[in-house]
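How a chain folds remains the central question behind the approach discussed here. The record that follows shows the chain in one-letter code together with its fold in token form:
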Amino acid sequence: MGHKKVCFECRKAYSINGLMFSEIEHSCPECDCKAVVLNHKFRPPKREDTKQWDLAKFLVDHGFYFDHVNCNGSYVRYPTTMEDAKTFVVKYKKQAYLPSKD
């Protein structure tokens, strides 16, 4: 399954092939700003849907890269509103991936 390189500055996502997990962060091919590799389950919103882009960035900033989140043996759906996202990051913080800042 492919993953996506996502730029929150341009609000664009690029499909990538192969495993690019030597680093989580990469550069955007368009603006050269930081881009993040997200799981193939991430569905990028339309470019003009800034609320959904802000929501996705909030989740990524809190360590949720659209990988599976598990609750009692079942996968949890990612939130679709900022209010739900704030609850989500608190409730599932033990499953977040926060890379070291070295």
